[in-house]
Write a structure and sequence with these properties.
Length: 237
């Protein structure tokens, strides 16, 4: 008699004559000295998941559509910016026009869709990652070589990734402002408080909110990092 493979998702409550094979891994086993030598371990149950091909294709289609849409916006913005760049144009005008065009074409929506990272507009010997500040009067000269680096995204950013990038590029005492729904604002507020940044303002209206924070000079010391790691390990025991 041929064996038919049965998945956990095929089982229903009640009596059943089917047999499901699963793999059980025990990672380690040790005595907990804090609990009278009681054995402790971690088990991992390996479960086979029966996801139909059409379900996988539907999931992949959603991802691919987001990537294609973001790429198409990127293509259109590149084409438009090339048509307006000319000798004597302010670098700030290039960046602001580019980012405004991205916001319009991609229908900017908080962290769900918009600009993936700050626009880089580097000239000549500056290799990358330079952006003119507000009020900068630098203009593009006839013989300049300019490198423009910008990104678009749809459903591709996480709050942790965004805050890690903000922490990398933002200087101490500079301000960071976010506008999103209150649930996301609450998550961001917890992150910046853990970094010991100064929350300058939070406002909410009709389910949306704005938070303004100022980066501090704080950085965890080696002692603080070790203490935090020990505390986390104790919580697991």
């Amino acid at each position: 008699m041929a064996m038919t493979k049965v998945f956990f998702s095929d089982l229903k409550s009640g009596r059943c004559s089917s047999v499901v094979e699963a793999r059980l891994l025990r990672f380690w086993e040790a005595k907990n000295v804090k609990r009278g030598g009681e054995l402790m371990w971690m088990d991992l149950l390996m479960v086979d998941v029966n996801m139909k091909k059409r379900d996988l294709e539907r999931l992949e289609k959603l991802i691919y559509n987001s990537v294609r849409q973001a790429a198409e916006v990127h293509r259109q913005v590149r084409k438009y910016v090339r048509s307006i760049v000319k000798t004597g144009i302010l670098m700030t005008d290039i960046c602001e026009t580019l980012e405004d065009t991205v916001r319009k074409l991609i229908s900017e929506n908080g962290l769900k869709a918009g600009i993936a990272f700050p626009t880089g507009c580097s000239v000549n010997w500056v290799a990358a990652h330079w952006t003119p500040n507000s009020g900068d009067n630098t203009v593009l000269q006839y013989d300049d070589v300019m490198k423009v680096d910008f990104g678009t995204h749809i459903d591709a950013l996480s709050h942790i990734g965004v805050m890690a990038e903000v922490d990398r590029i933002l200087r101490p005492q500079e301000t960071f402002i976010v506008s999103d729904d209150m649930e996301k604002i609450g998550e961001i507020e917890k992150m910046v408080e853990s970094l010991k940044w100064n929350v300058r303002m939070t406002r909410s209206r009709y389910g949306g909110g704005v938070i303004s924070v100022q980066k501090s000079w704080w950085r965890p010391t080696e002692v603080e990092t070790i203490t935090s790691a020990i505390a986390s390990e104790r919580e697991l025991v």
